[in-house]
Amino acid sequence: MTYVVSHNPTTGESVVTPYEETSPEVLDEMLSAALTRLSDLRGQTLDERAEMLRTCAAGLEGIGDLLVDVGGAETGLPEARLRSELARTVFQWRFLADVVRDGNLLEATIDHPYDSPMGPLPDLRRQMEPLGVVGVFGASNFPLAFSVPGGDTASALAAGCPVVVKAHPAHPRTSGLCAEAISRSLRSLGLDGAFHLIFGLEAGVRLVEHPHVAAVGFTGSLSAGRALFDRAQARPTPIPFYGELGSVNPVVVTLNAALARAEDIGRGFVSSVTLGAGQFCTKPGVLFVPAGPAGDELVRVATLAMTQWSGATMLSVSLRDRYLEERHVRGAATLAESLAPDTSAGAMGVLLGVRAAELGPRDIDELTRECFGALGIIVRYDTVDERARILDLLEPALTFTVHAEVDDPEGPSLLSYAATRAGRVLVNGWPTGVGVSWSMQHGGPYPAATSAAHTSVGGASLRRWLRPVTYQNVPSPWLPLALRDENPWGVTRRVDGVQQPGARRGTRL
């Protein structure tokens, strides 16, 4: 047997955990157990499922101090950051409980029989139903909010799907503690077996290929995500693979914005680039700044801010080493470097500068590559057309930010362009930080994500784990409760083409 090892990025110490890499036999047992729980989750009322999510949130909250201690040792993240992330994580579970209670996730519709122009139509009733067992791959940079207890796990359970999570090797002990808390919570409700945790690279590959798995959620690098995506599509029965793969997230500063807010934008860019040691998928990697005195001032402020930053400990030595290899762009000059802490995975911040006119096709390949770390690239442009040429060569992103004045003539056209290139468009802000809400979109056109139609965060995140089923001429006692004429659950429905409000209402948390 092979035990999983935990590494401390601050001290360099290693600890053998009590967790073993998951064998094919154990994985089969877990997935079989999860599959048997599908009917139990499908049979829950909306209130029962919401209570399940709230119970899991309370279970995670109950081990908060332990999670902060162990998570800090495994990731090097400070206590304040981990407590904030824990608060976000449990809020997400409770928020999704509210989404479930609302009932709109069912998208219930009823068409009674009638004589249509194409002839008589039968009684038709449609709702969304759980897809099946979901496999989840946790991320390294958020050991709570995007890992074992993260949004993919919470939203899949909220949709009524059993979950099997592959732990990230960067924080195995934190993953194990979270899994134990979720399993205890489900066991208290008689749902033992609806959630499992596995370890090991080979087990993760088998998870994607296993016939009991109906869909996969992934947060991580483009290379790893694409490899698993290809395996999911190569199965005898291909399955949905919802991967959030990161991007360089461009920021465009117009001339008017530079004239009005050079200092604020320069400092804000560096603050966003260095947040979390630059290990956020929404880090603004490339800043387009106009040539001229206003742009010069913005760059001067950003350069000073980077030199004043103290550096940070990255999540692992391997991530730090990769960052050191990738923090270069052909043809770019080093504008500023920060200090680096004296820790095992300590790293400095770097600010690079390049002129748009000097960028060729090979340079664009490096410019569009996400660099996981505190690297910011400033591209100076002389004309709007020059800027547009480079933007068109960049790959689509999770976010696209525009800094412009309210009466800026460039604003509307830039906003319209940005909406074709990213899943979230910002004006006069910074993209780091993904809020949990009904309106959040965390995804984008490939290669930012494998499906531009879905989000991994927010109220719509459940939609990935549901599929529509239409019931035709089904006797009322056999119908799902939400599709019966008397509407016992009180959900909002469209009946004979008319939207009918239900009696249920979500509760703002």
Which helices and strands, and how do they pair?
Layout: E1 3-7, E2 14-20, H1 24-36, H2 38-42, H3 46-62, H4 64-75, H5 79-102, E3 109-111, E4 114-116, E5 119-121, E6 124-130, E7 133-137, H6 151-158, E8 163-166, H7 172-188, E9 195-198, H8 201-209, E10 213-219, H9 222-234, E11 241-244, E12 250-253, H10 255-274, E13 286-290, H11 293-308, E14 312-313, H12 317-326, E15 333-337, E16 346-347, E17 350-355, H13 361-367, E18 375-381, H14 384-393, E19 397-403, H15 411-419, E20 422-427, E21 466-472, E22 493-495, E23 498-500
Parallel strand pairs: 3-22, 7-8, 7-10, 8-9, 10-11, 12-13, 12-19, 13-18, 17-18, 19-20
Antiparallel strand pairs: 1-2, 3-6, 4-5, 6-21, 14-16, 15-17, 22-23
What does this entry look like structurally?
The longest helix has 24 residues, at 79-102. It contains 15 helices and 23 strands. It has 509 residues and is of the alpha/beta class. The chain has helices spanning 24-36, 38-42, 46-62, 64-75, 79-102, 151-158, 172-188, 201-209, 222-234, 255-274, 293-308, 317-326, 361-367, 384-393, 411-419; strands at residues 3-7, 14-20, 109-111, 114-116, 119-121, 124-130, 133-137, 163-166, 195-198, 213-219, 241-244, 250-253, 286-290, 312-313, 333-337, 346-347, 350-355, 375-381, 397-403, 422-427, 466-472, 493-495, 498-500. The radius of gyration is 24 Å and the shape is globular. The protein has a 7-stranded mixed beta sheet, sandwiched between helices.
